[in-house]
Amino acid sequence: MNNFEFYNPTRIIFGKDTQKQIGKYVKKYSSNILLHYGKDSIKKNGIYADVILSLKDAGIAYTELSGVQPNPRVSLVRQGIKICKDQKIDFILAVGGGSVIDSAKAIALGIKYNGDVWDLFTRKAASENSVPVGVILTIPAAGSESSPNSVITNEEESMKLAVSYPNLRPVFAILNPAFCFSLPKEQLGYGVCDMMAHIFERYFTQTQFTELTDKLCEGTLRTIINNSSIILKNFNDYNAWAEIMFAGNIAHNGLLGMGRKEDWASHGIEHALSAVYDIPHGAGLSIVFPAWMKYVYKENIPLFVKFALNVWNVNGNLKNSEEIALKGIEETEKFFKSLNLPIRLGELNIEENNIEIMAKKATVFGSLGSFKELNTEDVIAIYKLAL
Fold it and tell me: Which residues touch 184 (CB under 8 Å, ≥6 apart)?
């Protein structure tokens, strides 16, 4: 196990009707905020009305900025920064899923930065200053509600890049599993794949002596697999959604990576894919991750065997370790398919012609990953495995 520090200051407020307390939590930080969200879904399901009532009762002035899209755009982030600077706003309340939260974090960074916020994502500059962000989570998936990361797309350049600063962890996050009942059905698959991918990026490591976090990863994966199957039968099962929502938070709050070297190659490969084709992040990950597994599993077959046995209950009596490892990858693909997720680029009508372009975008800052270090040619090979 490697040396590590763990610090996550995000206050998690979990359960039914917790959104009705939002004014109390915001008031601790500001009385002049930006309310940031996506489209009209929060107005249709009643969340918006609860939030506005609570903010007004607490005497909090708010300016609204809606319109966040999946793969959130830097153009809207720039608009939000201008609004906040002009109106001296010093707190961002994100009501939505990972895209809204990531957009809010980027705005929070940009308020304290004198240049173009995109400079921070292209690594031309760095800034650890930001205004605080609070969250009401409506889609369990990205784990951005307590992570230090923000991922933004520059639509003009077809680039999707990330930053990570400790101060970007939201100061609080409200998680109400009942919000999930009104989600589009496909969001279950996208969200489950996203949170599983966050665990995979930590689980597949070359670091030795990580028994505790191995088991935490495996247990969280089994919880996600089990409860997503329950939700497929009853989409309004509160207890199953509660497990999924909490698992999504645990998957990306940093705990599961403690003491181990993380990988993150597959996320880099997917970011290039969704930057070019603007597909849902979860759909991109369900394609990329099995292909990555097939490309790298020989780097640590015993770990892939453990994954097959402990997560998928693969028959341990198969003729050799490699067969068990490959069976685990196969079960991963089968599970993604059960959630109506794509596992091949061709399912989304993505052909070979842009593979080299995507691979170069994925490796714009150099090689990816640590489980097996990947250069541009490796990434091309993984995309081809996913055809």
Answer: none
Distance from C-alpha of 223 to C-alpha of 134, rounded to nearest angstrom = 27
Q: What is the pTM of this model?
A: 0.96
What would you report as the CA-atom Rg of the chain, rounded to the nearest whole angstrom?
20
Residue that is written with structure tokens 């052909």 in the block: 351
The SS3 of residue 63 is strand
pLDDT of residue 289: 98
**Torsion 311-144-146-56 (CA) sign:** negative
How many CB atoms sit inside 10 A of residue 333's CB? 19
Task: Assess if residue 49 is contained within a domain.
Answer: yes
Distances 296 to 187, 194, 271 between C-alpha atoms, Å: 29, 20, 19
- Domain annotation covers residue 5: no
Residue 28 DSSP symbol: T
Kindly report the backbone phi and psi dihedral angles of residue 316, in degrees, each rounded to the nearest multiple of 5, phi listed first: -75, 0
- pLDDT below 50 — which residues of the chain? none
> Which tokens in the block code for residue 106?
């980027």
Q: Judging by DSSP bridges, how do beta strands 32-37 and 92-96 pair with one another? A: parallel
Q: Among residues 227, 161, 220, which one has the least CA distance to residue 196?
A: 220
* Confidence at residue 23, expressed as pLDDT on a 0 to 100 scale: 98
Overall number of domains in the chain: 2
- Which tokens sit at 78? 């720039």
CA-CA-CA-CA torsion for 214, 216, 217, 222, nearest 10 degrees? 120
Which residues are within 8 A (CB) of 207 and not within 5 positions of it... i.e. 6 or more apart?
Answer: 1, 2, 259, 260, 261
217 and 166, same domain (yes or no): no
